[in-house]
Design goal:
single chain; about 230 residues; mainly alpha; two-stranded antiparallel sheet; 2 strands; about 70% helix
Length: about 230
């Protein structure tokens, strides 16, 4: 059996249910992306894209061969969005790094206007996502729509360097864990728990960085007299 055959078809049993190996591998890449993102490394984006491709094939059992009997089109759709926005984030962070910065992004709090815009966009996206996912027959469309909408906003916020994007991810994880457990996507549910812990750590880390860099920027340069 070739590596790709093994990756596409191999299964393991977790809690009495068959689970695809590629779901586990895809989530490992997702975890790697989260770790790199916490450290503000450009590698977060290409690593994440690999995970997105693998996980897309996991959540649409009607298209790909999967052991679960539930399609989560919101979960699949967010993988497509992740990949597209990751290209934007990859470019944006690369440009920042290429301009001489030590890392790919400088964390900052979103402005009041940006927060209102994110909230407004979130309401519209949720309404659209719910209608589309319900029409597609996605399982648990109201929660799947919440996860899809939050994922879009969080990924965009990460690309822009908003500290708040970590909080959005936590809100996604709180809903995602019970949804995925009920749908028997156990590795993804477990990774949501891990992601949640990393989001708490990442939020604290970016908050400290933002405060440190803001303090440094407000410190006046010493005046040399001579």
């Amino acid at each position: 059996m070739s590596f790709f055959d093994w990756l596409l078809h191999e299964q393991v049993t977790i809690a009495g249910s068959p689970v695809l190996v590629r779901e586990i591998v895809g989530n490992v890449f997702g975890l790697g992306s989260a770790l790199f993102g916490m450290r503000r490394l450009v590698a977060a984006w290409p690593v994440g894209i690999i995970g997105n491709v693998l996980l897309f094939t996991v959540f649409v059992g009607g298209v790909f061969d999967t052991p679960q009997d539930k399609d989560l089109w919101g979960q699949a759709g967010r993988q497509v969005f992740f990949a597209l926005v990751s290209l934007y984030g990859w470019y944006r962070w690369y440009q920042t790094r290429h301009a001489g910065a030590a890392t790919g992004v400088n964390p900052r709090w979103a402005s009041s206007r940006e927060r209102v815009e994110l909230l407004g966009v979130g309401v519209v996206l949720y309404a659209i996502a719910y209608a589309v996912l319900k029409a597609l027959g996605s399982w648990g469309p109201q929660w799947d729509a919440w996860i899809l909408t939050g994922s879009i906003l969080a990924t965009y916020g990460m690309a822009r360097g908003f500290v708040e994007f970590w909080l959005i991810w936590i809100a996604v994880d709180v809903v995602g864990v019970p949804l995925l457990v009920q749908a028997k996507f156990y590795p993804s549910a477990a990774m949501y728990v891990v992601y949640g812990l990393f989001c708490v750590i990442g939020f604290a880390a970016w908050w400290r960085i933002q405060n440190r860099e803001a303090a440094a920027a407000s410190t006046p340069e010493p005046v040399v007299v001579g």
